[in-house]
Design brief:
Largest sheet: 12 strands, antiparallel
Structural class: mainly beta
Number of domains: 1
CATH architecture: Sandwich
Radius of gyration: 25 Å
Number of helices: 1
CATH topology: lipopolysaccharide transport protein A fold
Length: 184
């Protein structure tokens, strides 16, 4: 009887070991091993804490991480910036955000919209870089950026740098638009 139990145990172990295995072969499909992220998440959020006590919360439908590139890549992105007292300062969206996990700088791309609430300002572009340390929004030289306010002010141009904290905005290349002064 004892011998029969031992044999049955060996048979169960053999079946279990042959039924499951890790496959370290080359991936099938359109991806190379170097292109695969270390891990992916659904309905993901990533928080960046800023030196002034505020924080930026990025959320995406998917998030993938690449340790070798030090990046977190989010898709269908929404972001919110909160002051230290939890007041909502800025909202926005983009189709994609690639966040450098070392510097926490972000490259936003695909229908980028940034809404600075207190300034009643909406900034639109196909892509913008956000520099965490300097807290600047920066465009590539060839990227058109449009700034709009509800009073009708609208400026479009190239070579954009925006400092929402200091309320300073510059275009280093061609810019045009209409300015309205609310005080009038």
């Amino acid at each position: 009887m004892k011998c029969r139990s031992i044999i049955l145990a060996y048979i169960i172990i053999i079946v279990l070991l042959t039924g499951c295995r890790f496959d370290y072969d080359e991936p099938t499909g359109p991806y190379e091993r170097e292109d695969l992220p270390d891990f992916m998440l659904q309905e993901f959020s990533y928080t960046v804490h800023l030196g002034d006590g505020s924080q930026v919360l990025f959320t995406g439908t998917t998030g993938s991480f690449r340790d070798d590139r030090r990046t977190a890549e989010l898709n269908d992105v929404k972001f919110l910036q909160f002051a230290q007292d939890e007041e909502l300062l800025t909202t926005g969206s983009s189709r994609k955000a690639v966040i450098n996990t070392d510097t926490e700088d972000a490259l936003l791309s695909g229908d980028v919209i940034v809404h600075a609430i207190e300034e009643d300002l909406v900034i639109r572009s196909s892509s913008l870089s956000w520099k965490r340390e300097e807290q600047l929004l920066v465009s590539q030289s060839g990227e058109l950026v449009t700034m709009e306010q509800s009073n009708g002010t609208m400026i479009s141009g190239y070579g954009f740098t925006g400092d929402l904290y200091r309320r300073e905005f510059t275009f280093s290349e061609h810019a045009e638009g209409t300015l309205y002064d609310d005080a009038e």
